[in-house]
From TrEMBL:
Protein name per UniProt: Uncharacterized protein
InterPro entries (UniProt xref): PEX8-like (IPR055334)
Organism for this UniProt entry: Metschnikowia bicuspidata var. bicuspidata NRRL YB-4993
Length: 743
């Protein structure tokens, strides 16, 4: 009995197969043809039979006839030849030896392609790609270096050479779109990062390849448009997982989105610097922007998806598949944008950096190109921010690189009011309705607002020239967001506060701005402790106090001597009016989240490095293009994030509103002018003494911590004298708690 029941070994069976391949009936499909091959080729015993079947397949009118199937159907050739090759590697004798099998494939493919290159070249590409995908399995099953490696090294080299020649012929301008798409997918699958892309492109027009590949991914008929399929599905369908896997995740473009995007990234990196190339980059990123706008509006229109992923259940396959597709799209575009930005930042690889930056004319044109392209990139990221927030604030290296570098380029080359107008459009009525009820119901809209707040925070920190009219708009819009009691999104509220603190850190001291400070402080007190934690309140009060006390402004005919006196008196009165004993329901430490993707910064300015060292620094590898590190806040909560049982059981977080507000007041002590230092220490002491006994014990310890750890030498000397001589702390045993002594 035959040991291989699947094989077709009799002449009649072989004749039937060959006849079917060469003269198929009208009902035969691509899947039928490939099914025949899969059931025959791995088990063939004779080289002659393999040649006949392979030649018959290459001339098969179903796959390669005048009426071409879509590239989605013909993509199965890649998958099936991968399976055929892997099956052959696992099948033992008495079938055709492995080396003989590979030799026949190599010879037949070469002969077929060379016989009529214009007609036949594209047909061998998916076959070579499928065979190459089986190389991992081949290397595992045939580890013998002497017996196999030399042979397969020559085979692989021969296949790469044939693929390159065939690909270049297939990319001629007259090629059918399905042929081009199948060729591009084959290239994406066979190309390895360790290789040189130009070896495959040869004389083929790389600009044409970029244009075709971008359309394959994000054009009007691109594979990423498959997201619309979700609108025609019901989440309650019992077969929803299989339906989405078959029609969405197994779509060739979606399945290999990462590889296709990586290929596009490399193409953009290697693109020349001609005006035509600049136009192509602008055209590509504009096409992606159209796609991103559509997918953003689609998600917002679908109630099922416009809730985000916070409450996503493990068994909800419908939503999980959608968000998986969204994340794949975001990762894809990050790769593509990396290639675009790297093209600019890696000019030194082509010896052009000094040329551009030594000529004002070239520099001006080049920086203008930077600004326009990066502005459109930021627009794309704005529409995709709902995906980033689903992944989790903090982003990832690739995203952070393009976000911060693009934003820095835009801000450093900002023409008057250009960025300001751009960001106002992103949060205007045409894009976002800022009414709290609308924001509460729309996850996508909230993500848009978050993105704009991040842009504004960076603008406040990075822009050297700020538009006063825009600053007023920024302040008013952000203040309206953070003060709205009906807004339910805590992340959005925190991001707004982060922008407000950046605003006050960079403001000019004036009577008008002083009223803004007091108004904002009033808001902070109103939101503590229900919305803001004690730590957040302390950070905010310190930011305000540090700014005001850095540049005092005197008053004439006023109740207060200057802005410092007015601010401190205002804070003091708020502390004094806070009733002792009002407990905080949730006293845990909650930090302020930055409005930007990263809350903590680990790299300095990318463009500044580019200017400082244009010859040796590898900006791509050494710098993630993140925003500069902000100055650290004084932390009176230094042990509050540890386990509460540590530090001998000493309480580190405030339990009452009065404790929290007075602690925040203590954060400005290190910035008090020397002339009023003792005066305000006495007033803070009165606040402590007017608290209840438990609050007194806690606040005395915190005051001692502030005086002993956070002051400069001059203030420290005055504070110690006040502590030990005026208060007689040693006699009264004030603040002498082991965990708090750090002299």
């Amino acid at each position: 009995m035959d040991a291989f029941p699947h094989q077709l070994q009799t002449p009649l069976e072989l004749d039937y197969l060959v006849n079917t391949l060469r003269s198929p009936n009208p009902s035969l499909t691509v899947q039928n043809v490939l099914g025949y091959l899969y059931n025959y080729l791995p088990y063939v015993k004779h080289e002659h039979n393999l040649r006949i079947v392979l030649a018959s397949f290459l001339n098969n009118p179903v796959c390669f006839g005048a009426e071409l199937p879509s590239f989605v159907d013909n993509y199965l050739i890649i998958e099936v030849f991968k399976l055929i090759t892997e099956k052959k590697l696992k099948v033992s004798q008495p079938t055709l030896p492995v080396k003989a099998f590979y030799r026949v494939l190599e010879k037949e493919l070469h002969n077929f392609a060379l016989f009529d290159p214009l007609k036949n070249s594209w047909k061998v590409l998916p076959i070579i790609a499928g065979i190459s995908l089986a190389n991992t399995c081949r290397d595992q099953l045939l580890p013998s270096f002497i017996e196999h490696r030399w042979f397969f090294s020559d085979f692989d080299s021969s296949m790469r050479s044939l693929f390159a020649k065939s690909f270049q012929t297939s990319m001629l301008g007259t090629a059918h779109i399905d042929i081009v798409n199948l060729s591009l997918i084959s290239l994406a699958l066979i190309y390895k990062p360790s290789g040189t892309l130009q070896d495959y492109l040869g004389l083929a027009d790389s600009k044409l390849v970029i244009r075709k590949l971008t359309n394959l991914l994000y054009g009007p008929s691109g594979g990423a448009q498959i997201y619309g399929f979700f609108a025609h599905c019901s989440p309650n369908d019992k077969n929803i997982e299989q339906l989405l896997t078959r029609n969405v995740l197994q779509h060739p473009t979606v399945k290999h989105l990462n590889r296709l995007s990586f290929l596009l990234e490399k193409l953009f990196q290697d693109l020349d610097y001609s005006p035509e190339s600049h136009d192509l980059v602008c055209e590509s990123v504009a096409l992606i922007l159209v796609f991103d706008r559509k997918i953003n509006y689609f998600t917002e229109s679908q109630e099922f998806f416009n809730k985000g992923t916070q409450n996503l259940k493990d068994g909800d396959m419908f939503a999980q598949q959608y968000w998986f597709l969204m994340k794949s799209i975001l990762f894809s575009q990050v790769l593509i944008f990396q290639g675009m930005i790297s093209r600019f930042l890696s000019l030194k690889k082509r010896g052009l950096l000094s040329q551009f930056f030594s000529s004002k004319k070239h520099s001006s044109r080049f920086e203008c190109q930077y600004r326009e392209i990066c502005s459109t990139m930021l627009h794309c990221l704005y529409y995709l921010n709902f995906i980033l927030m689903a992944i989790g604030q903090g982003g990832f290296d690739g995203y952070n690189f393009i976000y911060y570098v693009a934003l820095e380029i835009v801000l450093q080359n900002n023409s008057p009011k250009r960025f300001e107008y751009f960001s106002r459009l992103l949060i205007g009525n045409y894009e976002v309705n800022l009414h709290p009820q609308t924001l509460n119901c729309s996850y996508v809209a909230r993500c848009k607002v978050l993105f704009v707040l991040g842009l504004w925070e960076n603008y406040l920190q990075q822009s050297h020239v700020k538009d006063k009219e825009f600053l007023e708009y920024l302040y008013a819009t952000t203040f309206d967001i953070v003060k709205d009691p009906y807004l339910q999104d805590d992340d959005l509220c925190e991001a707004g506060h982060s922008v407000m603190l950046s605003y006050f850190s960079g403001m000019e001291n004036s009577r008008e701005n002083m009223q803004k400070v007091l108004q904002y402080f009033e808001l902070l007190i109103g939101q503590f402790p229900q919305r803001l934690s004690a730590y957040q309140l302390s950070v905010a009060v310190e930011t305000l106090g540090k700014k005001i006390m850095a540049h005092s402004m005197s008053y004439d005919n006023s109740l207060y001597k200057n802005t410092i006196d007015e601010f401190l008196s205002f804070v003091y009165n708020k502390c004094f009016d806070t009733v002792p004993g009002q407990s905080i329901e949730n006293p845990k430490v909650v930090l302020f989240n930055s409005a930007q993707p990263i809350s903590e910064i680990e790299a300095s300015s990318t463009m500044s490095q580019l200017k400082d060292d244009s010859g040796t620094t590898n900006i791509i590898d050494d710098n993630k293009g993140e925003k500069p590190r902000d100055a650290a806040y004084i932390d009176v909560f230094s042990t509050a994030r540890n386990d509460p049982t540590e530090n001998f059981g000493i309480r580190e977080t405030p339990n009452t509103s009065r404790e929290g507000i007075i602690m925040a007041f203590m954060n400005v002590v290190p910035y008090l002018p020397m002339s009023v230092f003792i005066h305000w220490l006495n007033k803070i002491w009165r606040l402590i003494m007017s608290s209840n006994k438990e609050e007194q014990n806690f606040l005395i310890g915190k005051l001692w911590k502030c005086l002993s750890e956070n002051l400069d030498l001059n203030r420290c000397e005055i504070a110690y004298k006040w502590w030990y001589e005026t208060l007689r702390a040693a006699e009264l045993n004030l603040g002498h708690q082991p965990a708090l002594f750090k002299l």
